[in-house]
Design a protein that fits this description.
6 helices; homodimer; three-stranded mixed β-sheet; alpha+beta; DNA-binding; 5 strands
Chain lengths: 165, 165
DNA sequence: TTTGTAATGTTATAATATAACAATTCAGAA
DNA sequence: TTCTGAATTGTTATATTATAACATTACAAA
């Protein structure tokens, strides 16, 4: 397990380039293992999403693609669906947006802390939260297929800015 | 506190009429207390949403309104926003839909168990889940403004149906 | 009765997402 | 190598969800 369990809010010294290239390697491996093709289109969109380190909308992706030629919404949505299926990106429902997954290839829902001010996002996989939800569902005899936890608020940096103004 | 802390999946003997009329009374009281008008339009849409006991989309509400005369989307969205502001309905983000709130007038986010088969929904307010999320946010120095927990899966009834077929 | 604010109506359009079918690509079989 | 079927991508059209901008109406308090 070389992947971190969570991606907290990024610090200034984050190395985007290294981050992206290790994510790319992981993605290739996962697709190979599952016998799916990691095509040029998929690679391109994967990179677009991963490079942001922020939630990015389908139409934002589309716009970037269109700078280099024709492209239409279904292409983008299909590819994002594929990347989700491969557990390479997450969809953030409260934002209608996508973000790179910090544990590529492993089936998990994650919990997301989303900063309303700067739009930074932290992906967590906190067992405490997961098990609290599972225990509650169990108690009601409910069978979970997907567990969405999205928390809006202020990240540490924006909190400091807000309190100092 | 005469309101229940949660609305689990409804049993067969649920009395819709009584349920709606007590919700209506609560709604009137809350608006009066906050000096906001509970107009005819707001009352009508509140009733439409409450009567379903299921998540209902804005355009479904619109369609029902249009059976009795003209109506346009902004009217519906504005009214649903108002009802949310008064803590009378919840918005279910994963469904783009609305549902009556089981603790009208009290600020809370709730947790929702949503059946993918029959679209029944249970609203919970489980302290275990809430505090797990809060503890996690605290640990990262994140300030919560809204906490969305939506769980997709199978309700007890649909589980039984699924396993017996 | 006036008057200002809140509420609602109206028109147009933005933003998000998918259906349906055509064309292309590619790995493996022949 | 060529063929073939499945997977992938392209293309067109349209469905679904949501809001901007401004006009009109209703209502409470002066």
């Amino acid at each position: 397990m070389s992947q971190p369990l969570s991606v907290p809010f990024l610090s200034g010294d984050h190395d985007h380039q290294a981050c992206l290239s290790s994510a790319l390697q992981a993605a290739e491996q996962i697709c190979r293992r599952r016998n799916r093709r990691f095509t040029e289109l998929r690679r391109k969109i994967f990179c677009l999403v991963w490079q942001q380190h922020k939630p990015v909308g389908a139409y934002q992706v589309l716009e970037i693609l269109q700078r280099e030629g024709r492209a239409a919404p279904p292409t983008v949505y299909r590819t994002l669906d594929f990347l989700q299926e491969m557990d390479l990106v997450h969809r953030i429902i409260s934002l209608n947006a996508y973000i790179g997954c910090c544990q590529p290839g492993s089936r998990h829902d994650g919990q997301f802390l989303i900063c309303e001010a700067c739009h930074a996002l932290a992906e967590l996989n906190t067992p405490l939260v997961t098990s609290a939800v599972e225990a509650t569902a169990d108690r009601l005899d409910f069978e979970i297929t997907r567990n969405m936890v999205e928390v809006l608020g202020l990240c540490p940096a924006c909190r400091r800015k807000a309190s100092s103004s």
